[in-house]
Amino acid sequence: MNRTTLKWGLLALSCGLFSAHAAAPDPLAASLAELGLKPKAVADSAIPGMLQVITDSGLFFASKDGRYLLQGDAYDLKEKMHLNEQILRPYRKASLASIEASGILYKAPNEKYLVTVFTDTDCGYCRKLHSDMQQYLDAGISIRYMAFPRGGEKSETFATLRSIWCAKDQHSAMDKAKAGDTISPAQCKNNVAEQYQLGRSFGVSGTPALVLADGTLIPGYQPAETLAKALAEFAKAG
């Protein structure tokens, strides 16, 4: 984690901004529908005259008349806030609470922290994180996997993740897939697609993507030692 990422992350933790959920105004709802976007949460934003719209494809800022739609990082330079994180952090926290039981948990014996990791079985850094699993567990960091097939719901990776979630021994199947081994195909009632869509709404665009207990998102692989130090700093700031 670089200093800039950590700095903005700590600011996001120290300056809470809760957004009430509401329906999109009719003109905006129509514009979003034309673009194939489904609004999940809408509220007035800190940017005058603009709405903040959490969709199934992430966060947007929009005019109420549906004419203008903006996507990208927004900062309040006066308050030194990363607005995207301020908006998405409580949404991620609440949304994860409703789906956490479906994750695949690698629990630390002396758990200090729980980190949710949106993962793909084929990405190199996802495999690196998994190969370091014992280091995370020894540092008191439990890892809870959520599925995020980067190629989407029609990809081969999606089928692999579905087979992992449907396996009798999920941990064994995950271990094999992360090692590059072929696992037995399996199907069952599962919510791999729901996890993937949830990750997209969180702003996840690559894997691994780490979500902390408070909803803070840390993109990319983090060594166990680095992550443990960051989590300790986040805990102090909170």
Please, could you describe this protein's structure?
With 238 residues, this protein is an alpha+beta fold. The chain is built from nine helices and eleven strands. The model is unreliable at 1-20 (pLDDT under 50). Strand 3 and strand 4 form a beta hairpin. Helix content is 40%, strand content 20%. A five-stranded mixed sheet has the order 7-9-8-10-11. The protein has a four-stranded antiparallel sheet with strand order 1-2-3-4, sandwiched between helices.
Got a strand count?
11
Structural class: alpha+beta
Taking all Cα atoms into account, the compactness measure Rg is 18 Å
The helix fraction, in percent, is 25-40%
- Give the oligomeric state of the chains in this entry, treating copies of one chain as homo and distinct chains as hetero: single chain
Poorly predicted runs: 1-20
State the end-to-end CA separation.
Answer: 19 Å
The overall pLDDT, averaged over residues, is 88
User: Any idea of the CATH class of the largest domain?
Assistant: Alpha Beta
How much of the polypeptide forms β-strand, as a percent range? 15-25%
Which second-level CATH architecture of the largest domain applies? 3-Layer(aba) Sandwich
Could you state the CATH homologous superfamily of the largest domain?
Glutaredoxin
Strand order of the largest sheet: 7-9-8-10-11
